[in-house]
Design brief:
about 350 residues; Enolase-like, domain 1; 8-stranded parallel β-sheet; alpha/beta
Length: about 350
């Protein structure tokens, strides 16, 4: 008789090269949770939880939830759908914990079969769009330095949502002619966002992400109607259930594993968004290459990629997907293809 998978979890301490500042605040030190699922033959699958207080999680809450439900691990790692259904019921308020378990299970299955996860899904990694590199809020001098550090990235994502937004855009544009996308992280009002639209056009911005607080859907619709720049919902779109209310109100959605809770939920979100003619973006938290690589496996299915979380770190504990000149390269090894550094 098969035995349930054994669960282990430990906290990882990460630090960014620069304080990562957005409209809600900033920090340099982050903690994620490394999750391992082990079968009776000693094969391991790995995942990473990147909890944030904004979505109601901490590393402590992730560890507590995983400890409480360690006995709910499947006997058969190939029973992914049922496992994720059970975890959704038991860990409803812990999406990043569920995402880590989902990644670990997919990693284990891929390793058992000897193929990468993207091959399980029949995807061609060469079709992944280029990734952006994020420039957080900072002084003009430091922003210019960050732009130089990101020289290999052809697309920059600029954090806005302050009273210095025009100055920030001008600083960026004076430093580079690369493509610019912006993210206000819920930092504007409808009036401010509409007033910013001609400014964004002036500086050649190509994507506008989450200008308003999460629940202001009618406000998002008002901005989208007036904008010739695609408007993408991030904080307003956590799971597949959030997509139908956004149809016609935004141009696209941003999927993050730490929000949606599993790889299979991410695939469902992509399918639903596509059915409604919406753009699909994949994003990330500040996390290591373990979590980044899990998300990178479905990048061939999306339009916009923002998977620079590990690139912002001063020391990445894992080796996985790499980004060269903005191009995402997935590991060729089985499962997620991630190893310890």
């Amino acid at each position: 008789m098969s035995q349930p998978l054994q669960l282990e979890a430990e906290v990882l301490k990460l630090r960014t090269k620069h304080p990562f500042i957005i409209a809600r605040g900033g920090q340099s030190d982050y903690r994620t949770v490394w999750v391992r699922l082990r079968d009776s033959d000693g094969n391991e699958g790995w995942g990473e939880a990147a909890p944030t207080r904004f979505y109601g999680e901490t590393p402590e809450s992730v560890l507590a939830a995983l400890e409480l439900y360690a006995g709910a691990m499947p006997d058969d790692p190939f029973d992914i759908e049922e496992s994720e259904r059970r975890w959704h019921l038991l860990l409803r308020d812990n999406p990043s914990a569920r995402a880590a378990l989902s990644a670990a299970l997919h990693d284990l299955v891929g390793k058992r079969l000897g193929i990468p996860v993207y091959r399980l899904w029949g995807l061609d990694p060469a079709k992944a769009p280029q990734s952006t590199f994020t420039i957080g809020l900072d002084t003009a001098e430091r922003i210019r330095a960050k732009v130089l550090e990101a020289a290999q990235y052809p697309i920059l994502k600029i954090k806005l949502g302050t009273d210095r937004d025009v100055e920030i855009l001008r600083t960026i544009r004076e430093a580079t002619d690369r493509e610019i996308r912006v993210d206000a992280n819920c930092g504007w009002t409808v009036k401010q966002a509409i007033a910013m639209l001609p400014v964004l056009r002036e500086f050649g911005v190509t994507v506008l992400e989450q200008p308003l607080p999460p629940n202001e859907l009618e406000g998002l619709a008002a901005i989208t109607r007036r904008s010739d720049i695609p408007v993408i919902a991030d904080e307003s779109c956590l799971t597949a259930m959030d997509i139908p209310p956004l149809v016609g109100k935004v141009d696209g959605i941003n999927i993050k594993l730490a929000k949606c809770g599993s790889l299979r939920e991410a695939l469902r979100m992509i399918a639903i968004a596509r059915a409604h003619g919406m753009l699909v973006m994949v994003g990330c938290m500040i996390e290591s290459s373990l979590a980044i690589t899990a998300a990178a496996h479905f990048t061939p299915l999306v339009d916009i990629v923002d998977l620079d979380g590990a690139a912002l770190l001063d020391g990445d504990p894992f080796v996985g997907a790499s980004i060269d000149n903005g191009r995402v390269t997935l590991p060729t090894g089985p499962g997620l293809g991630v190893r310890r550094r």
